[in-house]
Amino acid sequence: MQLLGHSKRLILLAEDDIDDQELLENAIEEIDPSWQLVCIPNGRKFVKYLDSIGEEELPALMILDYNIPELTGVEVVKELNDQGRFSDIPKIIWSTSTSPIFKAKSIELGVKDYITKPSDLASFRTTAAYMLSFVKQ
Asked: Which residues carry this modification: 4-aspartylphosphate (predicted)?
């Protein structure tokens, strides 16, 4: 995972499903190839990575799977909410679950949205465009 010298066009994705990673990455690439999507496969490593980087390396957007190993997406957001330096970065939870309880819990923590993962290729592009709409230009 080489990140040195990246611009503010970084999206950090907490996702352990390789297919979902690749589908989202391809959709974002089609929309705007200047974005760099970096995938971290579990919540604990996601938090450790964020704690290890400087202000100039912070991502423009964080996308977190609700059910990732070690720390869930919601648990990651709770930890990040305790650190002010992440407060201006939009965070999105996405999941295969359509649970209104999961959605309410996520929104309550201040995420921009809780999105159900698309089930077809065409919808990944629409979802990716919607996610990118939360980034300050």
From this structure: 65
